[in-house]
Amino acid sequence: MRRLGSVLTQEPPPSDTIVGGLVTFNGTGTVAILYSFNVSSITDNAVGDWTVNWIDAPSAAQYAISALGRYDTSTSAGAVSVKKASTPTTTAVIVQGTEGAGDAAVDLDRVCVTMYGHGRGGNQWPEDFRLVGAWVQFDITGAIQGTGYNVSSITDNGTGDWTVNYRAGFAGTDTYVVGGTCKQTSGPASVYLAIKKSVALTNIATNLVGGSSTGAAADPGMVYFMAWGQA
Predict the structure, then answer these.
(1) CB neighbours (10 Å) of residue 126?
(2) DSSP per residue, the chain
(3) How far apart are CA 3 and CA 11, in angstroms?
(4) Bridge partner list, 49
(5) What does the alpha-carbon distance between residue 123 and residue 12 come to, in Å, rounded to a whole number?
(6) Strand partners, 156
(7) Pick from 220, 202, 200, 201: which is nearest to 210 by CA?
(8) Nearest CA to 191 among 223, 162, 163?
(9) pLDDT value of residue 7
């Protein structure tokens, strides 16, 4: 806040503290953008290989990327990462989809990518994208650590299977983007986080799964999750 005489005015947030761009798309068949901000297009390079093209370029290429995906045609979940041997630029970032049980490239039916940092001034962005819509940290039992934001509860559905329930839902099923990661404290050395397959997406909850490199469901020690979108 900034004071002008006896009046408080809302200052725009610094450009490095707001979402610089985000997209959720269907990566199977003909790529279809479901919801986006500051993304001009998705280039389908090959199986499990896509380029996210920014409309307004960030001022530097050293920005942060968050990504999650869903693989709905396998017993394994799908993982999304910045493509090996590629380097994000001020105009685009290349991401890859792989099957959770191995390194095979696969087309995911839901890919979410968010970019943070080196954006334009905060007063030039729509209100929906200035701040995160929900965030939470929870443990192996689904217990929320601290308070989180706009998350009412975590439902523990079983090993490596949770539902994040929002206090205030988003405008629609396809009008928000999710991201997150996890930390392992015991069990398999490597655990990934993904959107759960074969579960209908809703505007009031997101189903997540944790899996090991063998494809088996696994509980990580801690899960970190966030969502952005239209309220």
Answers:
(1) 10
(2) -EEETTEEEPPPPPGGGSEEEEEEEE-SSS-EEEEEESEEEEEEEETTEEEEEESS--S-S--EEEEEEE-TTSSS-EEEEEPTT----SSEEEEEEEETTSS-B---SEEEEEEESS-S-GGGS-GGGTS-SEEEEEETT-PBPS--BSEEEEEEEETTEEEEEESS--SSTTSEEEEEEEE--SSSS-EEEEEPTTS---SSEEEEEEEETTS-B---SEEEEEEEE--
(3) 10
(4) 46, 96
(5) 5
(6) 162
(7) 220
(8) 223
(9) 43
The residue ranges of the chain whose pLDDT is under 50 are 1-10, 121-123, 130
Q: Rounded CA gap, 111 and 162, in Å?
A: 19
Q: Which of 87, 79, 170 is nearest to 129 (CA)?
A: 170
| Measured distance CA(22)–CA(179) in Å, rounded | 10
β pairing state of 92-99 and 78-82: antiparallel
Closest CA to 28 of 62, 74, 59: 74
Residue type, 50: W
- Taking the C-alpha atoms of residue 15 and residue 38, their distance in angstroms, rounded to an integer, is 14
pLDDT at position 5, please? 42
Q: Return left, alpha or beta for 201; rule: phi > 0 is left, psi -120 to 50 is alpha, else beta.
A: beta
**Cβ-based neighbour number of residue 214 at 10 Å:** 12
Are the C-beta atoms of residues 100 and 194 closer than 8 Å to each other? yes
pLDDT number for residue 25: 97
Nearest-angstrom CA–CA distance, 150 and 136: 8
| Closest of 166, 122, 103, 134 to residue 17, by C-alpha | 122
